[in-house]
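Subject: two folds for Thursday's group meeting

Dear M.,

Sorry for the delay on this. The cluster queue was jammed most of the week, so I only got both jobs back this morning. I'm pasting them in the order they finished. Each block is the input sequence followed by the predicted structure tokens. Could you check whether the formatting survives your parser before we put anything on slides? The first protein is the one we discussed after the seminar.
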Amino acid sequence: FRLLAVPSNSKIASVADGITSGSYTYTSPASILDYLNKGADDLCRKCYLYTLPGTVSISIGDRSKNLSALTLSGARSMRAYYEVQYTPSSGTNSGIVSNLTFAGWNELKNYDTNYNTAANGTPIYFYEVTGADPTVGIYPPPAIAGILTVNGFCLPTYLSAPSDSFTWLSEQWQEGIVYY
């Protein structure tokens, strides 16, 4: 196997032919796709190579959104996020994007002792909600329904056919694995 159009001496895997011994045996195109998909997942989990924006609708009073609800184009899921934007869908600021500022959850609770009952308003902050799945919290909860755009690090869609390729993989992918 060779990765994309790199020189012939740049192997990414040694795959046994099923006759000689080896750590991975070629049994079908599906097994090779599985091998490549697992490698891409591992690379994206450790190196955060694949960034992508995702969007999700947010209703009046919503305090948080699970990232599994995001609409992503070309990715299975978002692992972590670094930027959140809010766009109201009506009112005088309809369609105007606001960048939210990151704040720690504890700091927000200390800043506003009525945090859990805060009145709806225009979101200003976003924070990480701890739990099993990545979740983004917003404060204050929106008074107007809108769209959250979350920029973050994603896991790519799986290759499903031998002719598929990792179109998300940058030409500078080697720079991302320095600390891998």
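Second protein, same layout:
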Amino acid sequence: FPVTILKGIIASLTTYEGATISATQAMQVSDTMIKELTKSSHKYGLSVDEVVSAYRAMLGNGMSVGMSLKEIAQIATVGTLAVKAFGMNTQQTNQELKDLVTPGGITSASSTIATALGITNKELKALAEQSKKSKGDFSEFFTYLENKFEGLARVAILARMDTVSGLLDAIKIKMQMAF
């Protein structure tokens, strides 16, 4: 179900990487992104539905700050992995990651990951403004988030397989791949 909704959202895009695209092209982009999210999910032993759900939650705001679909996918995957290390559920994961691509969206009440990683609204707003001034080059916004997640993600990958939920997710994924 989350995959179908995501396909619809991406298929509704009228532009992609600065070019106008047809509905058929948008569906092809959608299929490519679903394959990438699935591959990343399997690589890190995450549920495809959880990563797709996080991606969907981040998509609109991520694009509004100029992130590419691939960049949003990377942060959705690494972010889901990191948030799972904190033991949060899918709904909370989605909110946490959406906050990170919403300049001004971080609150102490709902942004546990941002607070833990030292990410502030002031920094996100400054990066978004700087990106707008540099003719829409939002690579710094993405790089900033990627760097903030790097250490936490490495530890989360190692710790994930030492938990019952991590092992169960890995078994579930292997069964899905078999069928």
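Two things I noticed about the second structure. The radius of gyration is 16 Å. The CA atoms of residues 85 and 171 lie 18 Å apart.

Cheers,
T.
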